[in-house]
Design goal:
This protein is mostly helical. It has helices spanning about 1-5, 20-35, 35-50, 55-65, 65-85, 85-105, 110-135, 145-150, 155-195, 210-220, 225-245, 245-255, 260-285, 290-310, 315-330, 330-340, 350-380, 385-415. About 80% of the residues lie in helices and about 0% in strands.
């Protein structure tokens, strides 16, 4: 791990000791960038009524955050190496400010979807830049735990906003919620900029070479394991957001739970995902192999999917399965972040490896909600959802097996 940090494009060295307060500050930056993930599901019924959205279009409102990220995540890592990771992170937060503010002015689906795309650009900039900043301030012996902590940024930020959204909606309407999101992101920019001035010189300082950028992206994708981790993360992200995105609506409409209660219940599901990420960091730090964590995670969420939409089960039973889905499945993101860091083809391509990983996640998050909405609309309602989720659980198991096989071949080559 140390080699990865010391040979990185900016020439930075790993920390002589781990600066946990600043690791947590970067973690908060990721949480702020994830606010747009959590603010939509609790207010989705109101958005459907006020903006006349179909179920399919509601799925796109959830996942449109990821449209631009799908196209730009792979390149964002290379851009971060050139422009500077701190600078790209701050730029990402600025995109969030602008996107949330614009979204609050939407009078139809077009502007709302466009604003979500801008928020998505901000999200991916933060998600790609932050891990390299964490590497810079973390001692190599603590890096796996730090990446386990970082892996919680999305569920923690989304859960925080899910808890606040119903109350803020009641107090200020969904437009006020969007404006508050914009204000929180703006305030944090000033805090982050003031506390990280010494991390500003992380770019290569050279002219941006688009040919080299494309070559670096191809090298990362062709190296094998980073691409497998990206595909693995794609399967999980598709399953999680498809399940979680519609959960508040199902609780309100199907189980007559209040909007505030539904927000709390969905936030707790995401917080259990945080627990799973932290557990993965603990296990990885103690030498548990990645493929075991990935395999057990996909087996668990595949089995949980069978009962989450089973109307013969009680609300308590179905909700318990949602909690287990999130907690055990939470081992998958942290394991993928660790894998992307460790298997970059060379140290200078670590950020590009994370960019490819996040591109996989964004494809899954983009496709998951509208694909599930289209599936249940065409194949018999929510009772058919386990077939959809189960298929991607199997794909996740196959990529986990591929990661194990690829790693085994790598060890054989080294030993020979």
């Amino acid at each position: 791990m140390a080699a990865h940090a010391s040979d990185s494009p900016g020439g930075f060295q790993p920390g002589a000791s781990t600066s946990w307060p600043r690791v947590l500050l970067i973690q908060v930056a990721g949480m702020v960038a994830s606010f747009p993930v959590g603010k939509v599901p609790p207010v989705l019924p109101q958005l459907q009524v006020e903006l006349s959205l179909s179920l399919f279009m509601a799925g796109w409102v959830i996942s449109s955050l990821n449209i631009l990220a799908v196209l730009s995540a792979g390149a964002a890592g290379a851009v971060a190496d050139w422009w500077g990771h701190r600078r790209l992170l701050i730029f990402g937060l600025v995109c969030q400010v602008a996107g949330s503010l614009a979204g609050s002015m939407a009078d139809g689906s077009s502007l709302l979807l466009t604003s979500r795309v801008a928020e998505g650009l901000g999200y991916i900039c933060v998600a790609v830049a932050a891990p390299v900043l964490i590497m810079r301030i973390t001692h190599p012996r603590d890096l796996r735990m730090a990446m386990g902590v970082w892996g919680t940024f999305m569920p923690a930020g989304a859960a925080f906003m899910m808890v606040l959204s119903p109350w803020l909606q009641q107090a200020a309407g969904w437009r006020g919620l969007w404006q508050i999101n914009s204000g929180l992101a703006l305030a944090f920019i000033f805090v982050f900029a003031a506390c990280t001035k010494d991390l500003s010189k992380t770019g290569s300082g050279s002219k941006l070479d688009l040919h080299k950028l494309a070559r670096d992206m191809r090298e990362v994708a062709a190296s094998g394991q980073p691409l497998l981790f990206a595909l693995n993360f794609c399967c999980f992200a598709m399953m999680l957001l498809a399940m979680m995105g519609f959960l508040p609506m199902l609780l309100v409409e199907g189980d007559q739970v209040s909007a505030v209660q539904a927000g709390w219940m969905t936030a707790l599901v995401l917080l259990m995902n945080v627990v799973g990420n932290l557990c993965a960091g603990f296990f990885l730090q103690r030498g548990v192999e990645r493929h075991w964590l990935l395999t057990s995670g996909f087996i668990c969420i595949g089995l949980c999917s069978l009962g989450i939409y089973d109307s013969s089960l009680s609300l308590a039973g179905r909700y318990t399965l949602c909690l287990l889905f999130a907690m055990i499945g939470g081992m998958i993101p942290a394991t993928n972040f660790d894998g992307a860091t460790a298997t970059a083809p060379k140290p200078a391509l670590t950020a590009s490896s994370h960019g490819l990983l996040m591109q996989g996640a964004q494809v899954g998050q983009l496709a998951g909600p509208p694909a599930l909405a289209a599936w249940v609309s065409g194949f018999g309602g929510w009772e058919s959802a386990p077939w959809f989720l189960g298929a991607f659980s199997i794909l996740g198991l196959l990529t986990s097996w591929g990661i194990w096989r690829s790693g085994r071949r790598g060890k054989t080559v080294l030993q020979s």
